[in-house]
Write a structure and sequence with these properties.
Radius of gyration: 18 Å
Helix content: 10-25%
Number of helices: 2
Order of helices and strands: EEEEEHH
Number of strands: 5
Strand content: 15-25%
Oligomer: single chain
Number of domains: 1
């Protein structure tokens, strides 16, 4: 993948999926995620505000999906956000990335073009 991070012009995952996780990631119990940015889903799980119902859009997402976006709490983001990777990041396809992009009318990310390898000359 190129050095340009495709997530900075996308944001589709933040505006498509429910972002739920164990409440132990919240600041009040020693985690990173600010308590006021989550809603209780079950006695042990929370979700990022804005993602608990459809249409989903995380309250921490700034910008326009497909144009230019950023997470306003990037350093404090939850484990699902830390674990989610754009398709072809680290050379692996992520169908969920494709699903989110499709839901917002964006094309799937394409794998990086591999340079052709020429055979070595044998002298």
């Amino acid at each position: 993948m190129s050095n340009a991070n495709p997530c900075l012009t996308c944001g589709a995952c933040c505006a498509h999926f429910r972002v739920s996780f164990y409440w132990g990631e919240c600041q009040s119990v020693g985690g990173l995620v600010p308590d006021d940015q989550v809603v209780l889903i079950t006695p042990h799980r929370v979700a990022m505000r804005g993602t608990e119902a459809k249409p989903a859009r995380c309250v921490a997402l700034l910008g326009d999906v497909g144009q230019g976006t950023r997470c306003t709490m990037y350093e404090q983001r939850s484990s699902p956000c830390r674990d989610f990777e754009a398709s072809w990041a680290n050379g692996e396809h992520n169908p969920r990335c494709d699903d989110a992009r499709r839901a917002h009318g964006l094309p799937p990310l394409m794998p990086p073009v591999q340079p052709s390898v020429s055979p070595e000359r044998v002298a």
